[in-house]
Amino acid sequence: MIPAGEGTRVRPPQPSAWNIANALTVLRIALVPVFGWLLLQHGGHSTSDRLLAAGVFVIATATDRVDGDIARAKGLVTDFGTVSDPIADKALMGMALIGLSIIDLLPWWVTVVVVVREVGVTALRFVVIRHGLMPASRGGKLKTALQAVAILLYVLPLSGAWHTIAAVVMAAAVVVTLATGADYVLRAHTLRRTSPRAQAKRARRAAATEVEATEVEATQAAAMATAAEAAVTEAAARHTAGPEV
Question: How far apart, in Å, are the Cα atoms of 163 and each of 44, 170, 220, 242?
Answer without folding.
Answer: 15, 10, 79, 111
